[in-house]
Automatic annotation (TrEMBL):
This is Transcriptional regulator of sugar metabolism. It holds the Pfam family DeoRC. InterPro entries: Carb_Metab_HTH_regulators (IPR050313), DeoR-like_C (IPR014036), DeoR_HTH (IPR001034), NagB/RpiA_transferase-like (IPR037171), Tscrpt_reg_HTH_DeoR_CS (IPR018356), WH-like_DNA-bd_sf (IPR036388), WH_DNA-bd_sf (IPR036390). Residues 3-58 form the HTH deoR-type domain. It comes from Terriglobus roseus (strain DSM 18391 / NRRL B-41598 / KBS 63).
């Protein structure tokens, strides 16, 4: 079998089954595991999958920088933002992650809301300038330009002093086997700290992030309480999370 044809088959199996196992591919294609691992490495370099121990998972397409993602302001993200904004109650301390979906939360908070919003994203803070009743706590640190957020040890230290009611987490991958992932090591650490600082963690998951994975784990599924998805998402994609007792909100 030609290399190109073999790679096409790997991607087809990955799309259909949500994962591939190197040993199984080796047997079904009658080639060595070394050959399959080489194929997986090359496909990973092309951004077509995310390698894991023993095989691979679908790669998240949600890896563009903030400016690129801002150009993709589609109705699903807006709907998720509206649903999340409605969950924030007067008097609460709520954490908003960085990212374009979190920005939609800030844009749809009622102007008369009285609450405290904690964020490590200056773009989120700026969206709340005209919310007179909202106190904004902006976490500082090293400026990570790709996502327009603060990261690093100083950010994690500041977050450890906060006890919030709810955290709305943005990620690039939500997968039933590997949990919540993102594409940067330090950003993953900050998201993890924000989750630990909150009584409840709700994940913002537009359709392209479901059943996908990135390189760095944030938290496992046991550490989250809810996932907000688009109303049109196939039931099969959210069923594994609902079975684990995670609240699924369709926006």
């Amino acid at each position: 079998m030609l290399t190109t044809h073999r790679k096409q088959q790997i991607i087809q199996i990955l799309t259909q089954e949500g994962q591939v196992v190197a040993k199984d591919l080796s047997q079904s294609m009658n080639v060595s595991e070394d050959t399959i691992r080489r194929d997986l490495r090359e496909l990973a370099r092309e951004g077509l999958l995310q390698r894991v121990h023993g095989g691979a998972l679908p790669a998240s397409p949600a890896v563009a920088d903030f400016a690129g993602r801002e150009q993709l302001r589609h109705e699903g993200k807006i709907a998720i933002g509206i649903a999340a904004a409605a969950m924030i109650q007067p008097g609460q301390v709520a954490i908003l992650d960085g990212g374009t979906t979190s920005r939609e939360i800030a844009r749809h908070l009622p102007l008369d809301l009285k609450a405290t919003i904690v964020t490590h994203s200056p773009t989120i803070a700026l969206e709340l300038v005209n919310h007179g009743g909202v106190e904004v706590i902006l976490i500082g640190g090293r400026f990570f330009k790709h996502s327009v957020v603060a990261v690093g040890a100083s950010a994690v230290e500041a977050i450890s002093k906060i006890h919030a009611d709810i955290f709305f987490m943005g990620v690039t991958g939500v997968h039933p086997k590997v949990g919540l992932t993102t594409g940067d090591y330090e950003e993953a650490a900050v998201k993890r700290a924000l989750s630990r600082a909150s009584a409840e963690t709700v994940v913002l998951a537009s359709a392209e992030k479901l059943n996908a994975a990135s390189a760095y784990e944030v938290v496992g599924l046991a550490d989250i309480n809810g996932i907000i998805v688009e109303r049109s998402v196939d039931e099969a994609l959210v069923e594994p999370y609902a079975k684990r007792g995670i609240t699924i909100t369709r926006a």
